[in-house]
# Entry
Amino acid sequence: MKENETLYSTVKYILELFEKLFDTSIEVNGAKNLKTENPTLFVANHFTRFETFLLPYLLHNYQKKRVRVIADKSVFVRYLGALLEKIGAVSVDNPKRDEIIISDLIQGNFNWLIFPEGRMVKNKKVEIEDGKYFIKEGDATHKIYTGASYFALKSQWIRDIFLKLRSQQDSTVVSNLKEKYSLDINTPLSRLDTYIVPITINYLPIRGKENHFTSIASKLFKELTPRILEELMVEGALLTNSKVIVNIGEKINIREFIVEASSLAPLNMSYEEQEELILNKQRYKLTDIFLQRIYNNTVITFDHIFACTIYYYHSTQIKEKNLKILLYTIYLKIKDLNKYHIDKKVVSDMENILSDETSNLYEQVKKLALSQNIISENKETIVIAKDLMNQTVDFHEIRIKNTLKVYLNEMSIHKEFMAIIKECGEKEDEEIKNYLFDYLINEDLNNFYLAREKFKDRKPENIGKPRFYDGEKDEGVVIVHGFSSSPKETQEIGDFLNKQGYKIYLVRLDGHGTAPADLATKNHNQWYNSFNLGYKILNVKCKKVHICGFSTGGLIILQGAYKKNFLGKTISINAPLKTESIKIHFVSLVKIWNQYVSDEYKKESMEHYPENPDSNYSEYYFSSISQLKELMEYTEKILQKIKLPTLVIQGSDDPVVDPISGDEIFENISSKDKKLVKLNFKNHGIIRGKNSQKVFKEVLHTLLD
# Structure
């Protein structure tokens, strides 16, 4: 036992070393399902050889109880075989395999791990026929084994019978059990029920490529077989540059299946006959239940959505922007089902593909598809080689020659997921665009109405409501208002540009246009997200999107100019890098004051007398001013990274924003195409009322240039 514990510690050390030396991370979800003393049989999907070592270690780490595993006979060679035997692995061909597993579970000495698929499913092609699960390998179809259910049911049944009868020394049943499973009258048996715990192991991403393992192997061996090379390329890459997500499913109590089947047994039925009835009746039902839980815990990745989308798209060609819109639409529909586990990275990267910001996951899967000739590019069009997606690839080569087919195969049994993919893939591009546009508009309006309902003392609906204006041009302008204000502030410039034919979206920054207390709970990242939602709305409708921001909105769109890759213009009006207002400098003093006084004397807000009280709040919360200060500091740091065409407009005698702000923005941005316009205004709100037409004309001239 001591030697085996040392080996477990060695495996643990190696796995921790992988995480430190390479880019591999291991995440375990549902660990609460491991909190049990019951004899447990773990069942898991099987994609790599690595799982034979990884899962027993992980489970032992959480339960502090040894986990033995069935392994393919091919791995019991030389030092590897010796290591496996010493950590408790048993070859699938061991003639005493069944007795060893059942004996361990009866006595509760060790837990067990079994891969019910019976083999590595490299192509991830699992099918359901007549409610049963099968593995598809080329033209061959293999049943998924019910052995795990057999072991769990039999261990529970035998434990119950032996505990009931073991005092009867002359019992034939007791004698047979004692001999077959190494039991004795004094053998301590677990009185706890046997559990099955389903496990789903996910790899993000799957990429076959040269790695440390292929380099080492090529030096040690003169020639590597294609199969060994494939396994080293795929599994070595998974070990050195991936994320492993292990989802632990809900426990299944085997006693419930025993009781259910036993209730159907005639009173005069022998123990042996009862056992046969239980096994025959329940092993298939139990297998289907835990397999469903295994496959339902699959983590949906960007690659899954991409692979299925291009496969079921109704044509072999699609504009890349339309592909991104389609991917985003499908993602939203899948997310709204609230049924599937979606990789956290998909959320941010899906947002990025529609807001013209860098989407690493999209670029990675696109690169993979190009490298395997699944897609090609023709200017702005993606050409899909559907014949290659349908092509039969050797089972031991598919992971490196047609990786997207593996992802497609994996999702084929998820009916609701595939129904969404097929439904969207059959629709014309314009229909998808219209659906997504309406969805995003409704999302923004719902955000506004939900926020507004929380406050009795709130702005009128027409002041705070975000709004869209349609136009005949295929260009749009996202317009962002200032701090503590609302879309009402930007209505005049929106009306002006809309009359010139531009599609317009007046953004409502989160916390604005409702009540000051709403703004007090929001941060500048949430403001940026509001702007991004407006950008996505117009991006669905327009070939080209411009961004225009007033005051704090000017800081927000400068942040957008830094993050986005788009064709439009950036227009910043009276953006505050520095401010003439003492309020923003007063925040630090208030924080100090609040630390040393009782609650009744603490200050959370102060009165504000805005230039346009209809659109602006008349109260400032210090938490909000603090966020504005952070945004100003952040914007100052990123100016040099802005390279897109930019117009900076600054009022010469702005009483709120220090006019030097315009000069600093203009001088520090790296854009080759940039312009600074100073206008002789003595007020801050230069996009409303008297003389605002001067500003509008400068904006229009830049858009037309």
About this structure: The radius of gyration is 32 Å. DSSP finds 28 helices and 25 strands in the chain. The first strand starts at residue 25 and ends at 29.
